[in-house]
């Protein structure tokens, strides 16, 4: 493996010639968070040569700050794996970024290398050997082996990050928008692994970088759950057949409670008292006000929805407290995998990526995750025609009772908190759908009507 070229060696000219190509390519990527605003430039944070460009394939790892108008601060930092070839084989055509027309590599083709097995295997080899390349640190759980010869296969599903599967044995998630600090996508699964929880694939290896003395998590390798289907696919499949999903929902409730119980043991818990609950209700009220501005269809329901937050506030004033702990933070059916043997596991502990990292790592009530799952059953039931509200009610009840069997506490015993979190999530979903999938807007809006009544 070649040496790093930080601070840049051949890289400045490479970056100069990449600049116009990336400006056009980056905003088209699903994981690019700054959509809707032009990219006006880049600042390299670290450029690391993984394979020299003199062979058939050159490979660069890039951390780039992206400048956009109206972005406060220094601009988001993105992680890219750039391949350089004389010509791109037809199978890699979708990965094309463009052709370099200047600099030392003029005439070569650059492309998104994560979708090419050979470069993806370079990353796995670095993790296997715990390599240090430039500022990149590849680390591995000493108890877990990575065998050689695993063939890489990219996952092409549209996601917030990018993933590669190796020989159906491991899956590597390469984080795209990277932020300094402890990343819950590594922190939480590691904590659960220490607790011996079988509900979350234990991280095998990970990549980090230290930039300006701040730590960044760049990628996480986990065992691949073979033959798995996610909860959303399964729920829709059962709905299409007119089949009940309550038994699976109960199992999911049990799995969620097991994860919560292990997290409460592994990481600090705090008490949510008057001030914290007031702040929670206040935050929900503010998000509702912003959502009404963004999606006027919410306006007629705002008064009714606000009542859920007032009720929470009233409990806070009355001295009610709850325990808060680390939770999943963005739980829905799509974050649950059922293995071929029927075992459920939870994935993607990143939290809501739009929120600041510090906020995502705060202890919160586990009821928030439960509300996310309850919304998801409702989503499934209202995304089919005709809607199946009874199906959703059955799943919701089964999920709560499965949760209670393990946690010793039924989430339905906290109706005010549950309703407040569900309302907050439905409001978020209205904004999310208006922005990303307008055809889906009726799904959360139907819940808004019920919650506001
Ligand atoms: N351990 C795993 N085993 C099998 N498939 C997985 C595993 N982890 C993730 N996946 C698959 O990869 C997809 C993306 O993973 P996820 O962590 O949700 O990434 P993102 O942050 O990009 O949404 C999931 O929807 C799932 O299909
Ligand atoms: O990309 P993420 O998984 O972090 O989550 C975002 O996208 C989700 C949709 O893919 C969205 O979830 C909503 O739709 C799901 C069905 O597609 C449904 O199961 C969820 O309950 C519903 O919230 C999620 O809100 C958004 O953050």
UniProtKB/TrEMBL annotation:
It comes from the Bacteria. Residues 25-116 form the Maltokinase N-terminal cap domain. InterPro entries: Kinase-like_dom_sf, Mak_N_cap. Keywords: ATP-binding, Carbohydrate metabolism, Glycogen biosynthesis, Glycogen metabolism, Kinase, Nucleotide-binding, Transferase. Gene3D superfamilies: 3.90.1200.10. Pathway: Glycan biosynthesis; glycogen biosynthesis. One of its GO terms (biological process) is glycogen biosynthetic process. The keyword Ribonucleoprotein does not apply. GO terms for molecular function: ATP binding; kinase activity. It catalyses: D-maltose + ATP = alpha-maltose 1-phosphate + ADP + H(+). Belongs to the aminoglycoside phosphotransferase family. Monomer. This is Maltokinase. It comes from Streptomyces broussonetiae.
């Amino acid at each position: 493996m070649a040496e790093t070229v930080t601070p840049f060696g051949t890289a400045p000219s490479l970056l100069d010639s990449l600049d116009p190509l990336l400006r056009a390519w980056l905003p088209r990527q699903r994981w690019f968070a700054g959509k809707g605003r032009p990219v006006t430039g880049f600042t390299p944070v670290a450029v690391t040569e993984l394979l020299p460009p003199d062979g058939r394939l050159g490979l660069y790892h890039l951390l780039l700050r992206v400048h956009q108008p109206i972005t406060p601060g220094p601009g988001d930092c993105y992680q890219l794996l750039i391949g350089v070839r004389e010509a791109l084989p037809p199978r890699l055509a979708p990965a094309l970024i463009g052709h370099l027309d200047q600099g030392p590599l003029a005439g070569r083709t650059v492309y998104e290398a994560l979708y090419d097995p050979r470069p993806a295997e370079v990353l796995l080899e670095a993790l296997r050997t715990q390599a240090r390349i430039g500022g990149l640190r590849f680390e591995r759980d000493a108890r877990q082996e990575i065998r050689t010869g695993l063939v890489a296969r990219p996952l092409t599903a549209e996601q917030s990050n990018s993933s590669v599967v190796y020989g159906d044995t491991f899956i590597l998630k390469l984080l795209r928008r990277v932020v300094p600090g402890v990343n819950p996508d590594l922190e939480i699964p590691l904590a659960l692994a220490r607790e011996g929880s079988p509900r979350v694939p234990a991280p095998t290896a990970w990549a980090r970088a230290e930039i300006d003395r701040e730590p960044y998590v760049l990628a996480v390798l986990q065992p691949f759950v073979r033959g798995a289907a996610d909860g959303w696919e399964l729920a829709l499949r059962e709905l299409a057949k007119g089949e009940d999903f309550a038994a699976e929902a109960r199992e999911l409730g049990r799995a969620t409670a097991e994860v919560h119980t292990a997290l409460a043991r592994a990481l600090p818990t705090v008490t949510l008292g008057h001030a914290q609950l007031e702040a929670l209700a206040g935050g929900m009220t503010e998000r509702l006000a912003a959502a009404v501005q963004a999606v006027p269809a919410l306006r007629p329901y705002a008064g009714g929805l606000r009542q859920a937050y007032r009720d929470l506030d009233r409990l806070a004033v009355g001295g009610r407290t709850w325990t808060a702990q680390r939770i999943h933070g963005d739980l829905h059916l799509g974050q649950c995998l059922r293995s071929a043997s029927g075992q459920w596991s939870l994935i993607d502990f990143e939290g809501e990526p739009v929120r600041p990292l510090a906020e995502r790592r705060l202890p919160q009530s586990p009821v928030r995750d439960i509300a996310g799952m309850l919304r998801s059953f409702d989503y499934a039931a209202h995304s089919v025609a005709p809607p199946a509200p009874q199906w959703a009610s059955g799943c919701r009840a089964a999920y709560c009772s499965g949760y209670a069997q393990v946690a010793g506490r039924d989430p339905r015993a906290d109706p005010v908190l549950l309703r407040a979190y569900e309302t907050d999530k439905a409001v978020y979903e209205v904004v999310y759908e208006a922005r990303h999938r307008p055809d889906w807007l009726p799904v959360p809006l139907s819940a808004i009507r019920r919650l506001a009544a």
